[in-house]
Specification:
This protein is of the alpha+beta class. The protein is built from 1 helix and 4 strands. Strand 3 and strand 4 form a beta hairpin. Bound molecules: zinc ion (2 copies).
Amino acid sequence: MGRPPNARSEPDHVFGRPLSQCPACGSDQLEPVVEIHHEEVHFFCRDCGRCWRVELGYVHRVSPPTCAGCLERTRCEAVYAADHPDAHEDENERTRS
Ligand SMILES: [Zn+2]
Ligand SMILES: [Zn+2]
């Protein structure tokens, strides 16, 4: 009780279903992946093998080095490499702090 009538910003279910379709292939076969060590959740697309993270309402591609707890890391890496053919050299530790 005592909750103001228009306090609709409680973010306690922000991870309910923030992503309903894969931005790349349009599949709805998105699997939530809990990154225990980071206390975050991202989404693995079962159809295309891409991983996505939702932050502040924006969807970001998860790069394999930061894809904690990935369900299919091998596939995630392969698809990411195919999508970023010249990014694999300078990916290492660039923004790792
Ligand atoms: Zn997909
Ligand atoms: Zn992944």
